[in-house]
Write a structure and sequence with these properties.
CATH topology of the largest domain: Cytochrome Bc1 Complex, Chain D, domain 2
Helix content: 25-40%
Number of domains: 2
CATH class of the largest domain: Mainly Alpha
Distance between the termini: 51 Å
Radius of gyration: 21 Å
Order of helices and strands: HHHHHHHHHHHHEHEHEEH
Strand order of the largest sheet: 1-2
CATH superfamily of the largest domain: Cytochrome c-like domain
Bound molecules: heme C
Number of strands: 4
Largest sheet: 2 strands, antiparallel
Shape: globular
Length: about 350
Amino acid sequence: MLKTYFSYFLFLIFFTISCKNKKQFEAVKLSNKETLGRYLFFENKLSINNTKSCASCHSVDFAFTDGYRTSVTSLGENVLHNAPSLINAIYLKKYDWANPNATSFETQIKRPLYGNHPIELGLDKHINELQEVFKKDSLYAVLFKNAFPDSSKLFTSTQIEIAISAYEKTLISQSSSFDKGELTTAAYNGLKLFTSNRLKCVSCHPPPYFTLATLTENMDSIYANIGLYNVDNKNEYPAIDNGIYSITRQEKDNGKFKIPSLRNVMLTAPYMHDGSIATIDEVIDMYARGGRNVDYGNYKGDGNLNKNKNKLIAGFGLSAKEKQDLIAFLTSLTDSSIFYKQSFKNPFKKN
Ligand code: HEC
Ligand code: HEC
């Protein structure tokens, strides 16, 4: 109980600070590295067949996600996971849904660029050809020269990694109604529910980014099993995708995935690591039930009974009005200023 009051207090402090933070409205001027990174982030030529870029799966229209259950690679294959938002991702201590080893943009980026399971962009497969293309391209010749003025060799994959990572660090935005202190009565009631001892959402999704993953490196805090699966009622998630268990090999970690930020959550459907929940409404029903019952197919089983499920996911009652209030609060975390920031836009498109 005390803990809940404490988090509520935390919220009020955060609220007051962010209301005074007007800096976000100033136009961002990108450095030369960040500028090159912005072009490369939107550059389809990075992919093996010139069809996809980082932005294909991380589009500003969906708060830098893609609207798919699981993302589709340049070769048309589905990856295992749902694309997370990149806004404010700089503050995360760990990247991806269940990879404790990805602790910086510079390490994370190797998977989309060079990963083979499946191939996402496949940059390594055609880097030599791409370097020839960049050399002859007057725009990239200047962008690379400006970004790496002291380098004798330009257009290297390391420079591509460094520049895109630098750009990712500029994807910062905190101008939601919540940040501006403009909560409707419904949203304010929803905030009280979110921080209540009954719902306990704030224990895992605390401000300022509504995830523990920006606040600690402790794996037991950052990753949680929320009872989405209980295949054959054996306390396991689907074997092809069972969270950090695949790395730690500890039974207690089966089904633990990273706690995502809830900023812009109304723009980032579908939800969860595998995109298996379509709407916010259903997400809340799942939490109220204390886990999901999969009642047909290969993954049949009741997540509510999964012994590896986090103890905080115990279920709760919620009236229809309370549910609407909670959704109003989550909606107050939508930051529509992202649609107007020049540096978030595709540089190849003239407005
Ligand atoms: C095919 C679609 C696709 C492409 C292309 C892609 N991503 Fe992703 N991205 C994803 C998915 C899916 C995840 C989650 C991966 C996982 O956990 O297995 C992800 C995760 C991330 C994360 C971690 C975010 C977090 O909250 O942990 C970052 C950062 C990221 N991508 C940046 C990039 C960059 C930079 C590029 C271009 C070099 C890129 N992505 C290309 C789909 C894509
Ligand atoms: C025990 C920690 C924990 C608690 C408590 C918790 N969550 Fe979560 N939440 C998570 C984790 C972990 C995920 C991702 C799970 C996955 O994909 O397997 C998640 C995912 C979500 C998502 C989907 C976000 C996305 O981008 O896919 C929403 C929305 C959400 N939670 C809202 C809530 C609300 C509302 C509450 C309170 C009723 C709540 N959470 C309580 C840990 C928690």
